[in-house]
Amino acid sequence: MNEVLRIYVAGKVSKDSQFGRHDWRDAFVAELEKLSGLKLFSLDPTKSEVDQSKPALVFGADAYMISRSDVVVVYLSDDISVGGSQEILVAKYFGKPVIGLAPHGGKFNGSSKEYPDGIVENYRDPFVFSTCDVVCESVKGVATALNALDKLRIKSIDIIGDLAAWYKETNLENNDYLKDA
Question: What are the residue boundaries of the structural domains of the chain, listed by start?
């Protein structure tokens, strides 16, 4: 690990989010430094000085920052936008470890979720738990995970094809709806 750990924090950008401000990442990274004892350099998408009216430029800047990071932390607040989920897959594309912060009881971790055939209790979002390398319930948990990065088994972008193939091999025959798809 580098002397300074480069961290990209994905999450809500709008000041109208639950954080109430654009610069919430500054306090979040400072708290992670305090809890982990690590020196962190934040690659902050809100500070990248790109023309926000140009989607490809914004995406390119964010993808570049993720490619330069040592780790991506995704703050999975209940009001997270589509960008956070995309940033998880961009990180997987670049082979970066991804730590998800999904508070217990939120919509991604430990709540209940209703489906047409019933309610799933202690729900764990399949897209979060399948693509993140570790999912933590607290900032302290993220700090602990940062200190254990060298022990983390990092999933690659291949997780997508691997899980699709695994599903086909082990469960497709039991799914009348998808058998002929």
Answer: 4-155
DSSP string, 49-75: ---TT-HHHHHHHHHHHHHH-SEEEEE
Instruction: Give strand pairing partners of 100.
Output: 74, 135
Query: Which residues in 39-72 are b (16+ Cβ under 10 Å) and which e?
Result: ebebbbbeeeeeeeeeeeebeebbbebbeebbbb
Domain covering 4-155, topology: Rossmann fold (3.40.50)
From the CA atom positions of the chain, what is the Rg in Å?
A: 18
**What pLDDT, on the 0 to 100 scale, is given for residue 25?**
87
Amino acid 21: pLDDT = 57
Distance of alpha carbon 154 from alpha carbon 134, whole angstroms? 9
137 vs 106: CA distance, rounded Å: 10
H helical segments located in 37-148: 55-68, 82-93, 126-131, 139-147
pTM of the model: 0.91
For the chain, which residues score pLDDT lower than 50? 1, 17
Q: Is 97 exposed, middle or buried (0-12, 13-18, 19+ CB in 10 A)?
A: buried
Q: Which residues contact 103 (CB under 8 A, 6 or more apart)?
A: 76, 77, 109, 137, 138
